[in-house]
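Agenda item 2: 9MR complex prediction
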Amino acid sequence: MALGGMVALAGSAEAATTLGAAATAKGRYFGTAVANNRLGETDYVNTLNAEFNSVTPENEMKWDAVEPSRGSFNFAAADRIVNHAKSRSMQVRGHTLVWHSQLPSWVGSLGADELRKAMTTHITEVMTHYKGQIAAWDVVNEAFQDGTSGARRNSPFQDKLGAGYIEEAFKIARSVDPAAKLCYNDYNTDGINAKSTAVYNMVKDFKARGVPIDCVGFQGHFNSNSPVTADFQQNLERFAALGVDVQLTELDIEGSGSEQAANYEKVVKGCLAVSRCTGITVWGVTDKYSWRSSGTPLLFDGNYQKKPAYTAVLDVLNGGTTTPPTSPPPSTQPPTSPPPAGSGSCTASLRTDSSWSGGYNATVTVKAGSAAIGRWTVTLTMPSGQTVVSLWNGVTSTSGNTVTVKNAAHNGSLAAGASTSFGFTANGGSTAPAVTGCSVS
Ligand code: 9MR
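Presented output:
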C-alpha cells in the first residue's frame, strides 16, 4: 500500500501532514467513501487524492448497482472508482455483496433454491471481476436487528435460506478471492450492547467452526442519539481477541467544533489502541455530499476546508496526544522479577455498563493489593437462571451458579496497587451477580 500524502518534517519531530500518511506511519490506512458522480469535481478529487489512501465505493458495488436484473452485470461506475484508486495506489474496500437494502426486487421474489443460486452467482461474478483488487470485502452487511433481541434481521436471505446464509456467503467468497479479507459489517455495534454481542457470538462461532471470516467492520455512524460510548475501545478489543481484524468502516459523527473533534479523537484513539484495528474509513469526503449532510458529520466542510475534527484526527494519528496501545501488547507490563505464584492479594468490584430486560453487560475491575501479583481468580455468584454468554479479557468456567474467571494470558501480572478488568455479557435477568472472591491462587 502506498502513502496517500506527503510526509513533512515539522520542527525536529517528523509529523505527517495528511490523514493517509499519518495513518500509514501507524501501520493503518485512512479511507473515505467515494461517489462516482463526484469524481469530476476538482476540489473533491484533490482532497481525496491528497488525504486518503483507501476508498470504499459508497453505492456503486451494491447489488442494485452491479446486477440490476438477473445475470446482467454493470460494473462501469464501480470500475471508475477502482481505477482511480489504483492509479493513486490507494486500496479498495468492497461494499457490499449480501445486504437486505439496495437489493433489486427480482432477488426478493425468488424461491429458496433460485435465491441460493442467485446469491452464489452474484458473489462469484462480482468478486471475480475485482479479484486481486480488493483489500477487504463487506461480504454480509447489517444482518442483525436493532434493539435487544440479538436476532437476525428479516430479509429475503434470512427468511428463505435461514441464518446459515451468512456462512454460505463467506464460504463462497473465500473460494472466489482467497486473497481478500472477508468482513462482516454492521451499525449500532460500536459499543458493547445486545446487537454487538449477537455479532460477537456469531464471529466466535465462525472462528470455532472454521467458517472463513477475517474482519469485522464497525460502521461508526454517531450522533446524539447514538453517541460514542465509553466502552467503544473495549468492544473493539473483545472482537480482536477472537482473532479477527477490526475496522471502522463508515465513520461519521454529527456535530461541529470542539465537541465533534473530541468525539473523533476518542474514536481514532480507540482504534490506535487496538493493534488489530487496521484502518479507518470516513463515510465521505465533504459534509456537502454526506448522506446526512445537515448533521455535518465529516472532516471537511462543504467548501473542503479542514474542520477542527480533521485537526484532531491528524494530531491523534501523529501521536501528539495518543496513549500507547493497550491491547495487545498487554496493558500492564509484567514486573521485572515476577512475584512467586500464589503470593499477594487482590480485590474485585463489578459495575453494570448497560442492561436491558433479560440481560446486561458488566465490567469487573481486579486490583492488586500492596504487593505485585502474577495471576488472579475472581468468583461470581450468578442469580438463578442467569448465564454468561460471552466474556473477554479473562478465562471462564462455570459450576452451578458459580462462575470462575481467571486472568487471560496478557492481564495476570499486576504491579502493587495496579488494576485490570474483564467484561462479560449475561442473559437470563438483569440483576448483577455478587463478586464472592478474588484470589491469587
Ligand atoms: O451513503 C449511502 C447513501 O448514499 C445511500 O443513499 C444509502 C442507501 O441505502 O446508503 C448509504 O450508505 C449506507 C451504507 O451502504 C451501509 N451502512 C449505512 C450507510 C448510510 O445509510
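Discussion summary: Residues 40 and 46 are 10 Å apart (CA to CA).
Owner for follow-up: CH.
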